[in-house]
């Protein structure tokens, strides 16, 4: 099949949804995996503990992931990251998510991916702006999310670096970011709902150590490796492809590349909690891969596209096999 038929074909959208929902169902029935165990938030339990029913858990998570895929399409349509109308971000995001059984259940990582995708609307809109409101809004959202997932705060340095990339690094933006992040805590501590000592949960607590052996017999390990390689390859080619594009397009795609690398680094450092960062990596790599394949529809691009689909499908089937 011609790769162009995947890019704008309405059946790509329908087929992706059917494939994802079927994959979630098969995963719930046949896959053997450990559920995510998120760390408790400053005030609220982690998302893994919100829903006790397996059906409601899978259902809510599926709606969340489908919404995240739609947000990626909307971002591309509004800010022209890929320079073309394409449905591939949606396809790749659902593909990467369904190949990780632990991500079929509602977890902090999936919520983090969708929330950060939502924040990108305000982030990209702040290009060359001098107003403090976008920074206040972005950091305010992150601050609220730390109440159930402290690891949200780990992405603050990335967005501050991103401010410079989108030419938004000003005194106003930094003050807006600081006030936006501090305001929810200031209110909660001030009215006595949250103790000041609760802020200690924001301090990174990585227990990094080099494992004696790598889990070569675990399909999840190879899924992460394949996703990292796909992001590295797509991100590198994106840098060359956007070299002659306007500065704004380079800045947007450059930040997606940074988000991908940053999430991969966090995943390696805190690999015991990989489900926190893998969905964000999936989101960033989905945009990177979509950029590459939308702009490379020649024979080698078609062969590589079907090879990627085959590899991920094989990993998905491997997850369903009995241990």
TrEMBL record:
Protein known as: Glycosyltransferase RgtA/B/C/D-like domain-containing protein
Superkingdom of this protein's organism: Bacteria
Regions crossing the membrane: 12-31, 60-79, 91-124, 136-163, 175-201, 221-240, 252-269, 275-293, 300-321
Alphabetical UniProt keywords: Membrane, Transmembrane, Transmembrane helix
The keyword Transmembrane appears for this protein: yes
């Amino acid at each position: 099949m011609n790769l162009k038929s995947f890019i704008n074909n309405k059946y790509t959208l329908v087929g992706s949804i059917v494939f994802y929902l079927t994959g979630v169902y098969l995963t719930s029935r046949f896959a053997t995996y450990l559920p995510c165990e998120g760390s408790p938030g400053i005030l609220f339990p982690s998302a893994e503990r919100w829903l006790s029913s397996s059906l409601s858990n899978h259902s809510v998570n599926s709606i969340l992931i489908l919404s995240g895929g739609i947000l990626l399409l909307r971002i591309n349509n509004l800010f022209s990251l890929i320079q073309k109308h394409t449905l591939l971000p949606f396809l790749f995001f659902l593909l990467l998510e369904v190949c990780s059984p632990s991500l079929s259940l509602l977890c902090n990582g999936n919520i983090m991916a969708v929330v950060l995708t939502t924040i990108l609307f305000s982030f990209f809109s702040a290009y060359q702006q001098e107003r403090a409101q976008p920074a206040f809004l972005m950091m305010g959202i992150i601050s609220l999310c730390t109440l159930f997932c402290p690891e949200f705060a780990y992405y603050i340095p990335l967005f501050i670096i991103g401010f410079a990339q989108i030419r938004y690094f000003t005194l106003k933006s930094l003050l807006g970011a600081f006030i936006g992040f501090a305001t929810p805590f200031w209110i909660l501590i001030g009215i006595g709902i949250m103790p000041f000592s609760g802020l200690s949960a924001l301090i990174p607590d990585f227990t990094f150590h080099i494992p004696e052996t790598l889990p070569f017999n675990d399909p999840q390990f190879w899924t992460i490796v394949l996703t990292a390689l796909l992001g590295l390859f797509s991100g590198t080619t994106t840098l060359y492809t956007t070299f002659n594009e306007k500065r704004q397009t380079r800045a947007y795609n450059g930040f997606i590349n940074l988000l991908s690398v940053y999430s991969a680094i966090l995943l390696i450092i805190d690999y015991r909690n990989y489900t926190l960062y893998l969905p964000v990596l999936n989101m960033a790599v989905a945009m990177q891969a979509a950029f590459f394949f939308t702009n490379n529809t020649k024979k080698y691009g078609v062969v590589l596209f079907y090879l990627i689909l085959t590899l991920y499908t094989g990993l998905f089937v491997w997850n369903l096999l009995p241990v």
